[in-house]
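Give me the fold.
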Amino acid sequence: MALTMKMVRAFLCVLSVFVSLVSERLVVLAAFSQSVDSDFTFTLPAGRKECFYQTMKKDASLEIEYQVLDGAGLDVDFTVFSPLGQLLFSDYHKSDGVHTIDTEEGDYMFCFDNTFSSVSEKLIFFELILDNMDTDEDPDDWKEYVHGTDILDMKLEDIMDTINNVKARLGKSSQIQTLLRAFEARDRNIQESNFERVNFWSVVNLIAMVLVSGVQVYLVRSLFEDKRKIRT
């Protein structure tokens, strides 16, 4: 009976250690910073200008990529301004573009301008990729949650490196898939526009051919008509 109690106590001790380690791992995983990348799709009416703001930290990186998915001409004017109001980039009548900025502290403004078009609205997709935004956090702060031998610390470092690599690759895959969806939407809109244009001009050509054929038949028949009057 005493041996059984010792085995139960030993099992409970091992179980408590395991639960403690698992809880610490969950705390470490919860401490991961969430992705700050984002993408948007919006409609820019004719004769309008829309501006967006992004707050950035010093020594971070901001990458802006945009595409015009639909609208006559598939073009738009695009500008980027620094927190001090300085013009950093400007694109005129472009269908897509990519710009990377090494940022300072403050709010960056980027604008899409469709004032040159008085009829057609534009469907625009853009993506923001933010890097080095967690500069105030210590990348090794998770180690304070770990208490154990050096071997355990080494294993945790390997696990963290693997998780970070997987997270980075998943983030890159998500960005590529988003861009591919944007390209697909743009190609689909172009195909639909071309399809409607081909159908319209096909109908116009058909009507013109019918009219020309009718005029030709009338002229040929008028050439062979006997215009002499029969005298009685």
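The beta strands are 38-44, 49-56, 61-70, 76-81, 87-94, 96-102, 106-113, 122-131.
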